[in-house]
Amino acid sequence: VVTLRAEAQRAAISRRGELGGADYVIEVPENWRGGLVVYAHGIQYGPGRGAVGSPPIAEHIIDSGHAWIASGYGTREYRPHVGVRDLLALREHFVKEIGQPCWSIIYGQSMGGHIVVASLELHPGIYQGGFAECGLVDGISIADYLLAYTAAAELISGVPLLDAPDHDTFVRILNERVV
């Protein structure tokens, strides 16, 4: 039997903060019905920790009387294990600060889809369901595919794509060679 501590909660809650090196957002409507959507955003490029984004269906979640949370993750690039860790910590923080939800669904896009699948596999029982929208769920094989595709493009075009140390340099090299 799940008890809902949040039933006594009447005021809406909107919190932003930092947890374990990752920025986060917590949104709870004043009519919270007990559901929690944990949002896993996709890949972000560049150095440093990621930026928090809201789910595209945030307004629908709130209007339906459910809460949502999101983390920016402690790092950028393709690091789904960091997203799994940071979202799990944020969910635990939500439980301590707001209350135990009746259910938790994890929802993600792109790399967030990989985070969804990994979270469901690695932490059974935490989430009652998941939705991977356009999810990269191949794991390391997607990296192998992208590397092979880039190597083939480099061989065919003669553009030194694999020498690019980061995404911005890759785009610059590619655009300099386009006629």
Give a written overview of the molecule.
The protein is α/β, with parallel strands linked by helices and 179 residues long. Helix content is 36%, strand content 22%. It has five helices and six strands, in the order E-E-E-H-E-H-E-H-E-H-H. It has helices spanning 58-63, 80-97, 111-122, 140-157, 167-177, and strands at 13-19, 22-28, 35-40, 67-71, 103-110, 129-135. It has a six-stranded mixed beta sheet with strand order 1-2-4-3-5-6. Helix 3 links the parallel strand 5 and strand 6 (129-135). Helix 2 packs across helix 3 (111-122). It is elongated, with a radius of gyration of 19 Å. It starts with 12 loop residues before the first strand and ends with a helix. Mean pLDDT is 87; it is low at 1-6.
- Provide the spatial order of strands within the biggest beta sheet: 1-2-4-3-5-6
Number of strands: 6
Oligomer: single chain
Tally of contiguous helical segments: 5
Low-confidence stretches are 1-6
Query: What is the typical, i.e. mean, pLDDT?
Result: 87
Quick recap:
The protein is an alpha/beta fold. The chain is 36% helix and 22% strand.
Keywords:
single chain; 179 residues; 5 helices; disordered N terminus
List the SSEs and their pairings:
Blueprint: E1 13-19, E2 22-28, E3 35-40, H1 58-63, E4 67-71, H2 80-97, E5 103-110, H3 111-122, E6 129-135, H4 140-157, H5 167-177
Parallel strand pairs: 3-4, 3-5, 5-6
Antiparallel strand pairs: 1-2, 2-4
Helix pairs in contact: 2-3
